[in-house]
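W.,

You were right to be curious about this one. When I first looked at the sequence I had no strong expectations either way, so I just let the prediction run and decided to look at it fresh. Below is the sequence, 116 residues in total, followed by the output.
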Amino acid sequence: MGHVNNAVWVQWMEALATAHWEAVASAEHQAAYAWLVVRHEIDYRGNIREGESAQATTWVAAPPEGARFERRYEFRSAVGKVIVVALTQWAMLDVGSGRIMRVPPEVAAPFLCGGS
């Protein structure tokens, strides 16, 4: 249909989350923990076409609840219009055991400063 489809928005959200994790989390935490998507919620308020650009922001607005951590996203068109607002719930996985675990406060703390 000539515009960005749903699967691409999800790929961009996952890429943003990964980049944020790699930029903020300590090397020790990155080696010990991984994230699994539990749920995506996406509200489409517009779209972009091939060749157009968007700017994205991602942030963590609230502390984790148990193993779950919510991440928010906002995509804006080149003229600044909000075109996609999304929320993803992630679960933390202990790499060593392969089990889902509660998010330790020291892992969450660096992400709880608002938009990054």
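Here's what jumped out at me. The helical segments are 6-24, 27-32, 105-108. And, maybe more interesting for your project: The longest helix spans residues 6-24.

Coffee later to discuss?

I.
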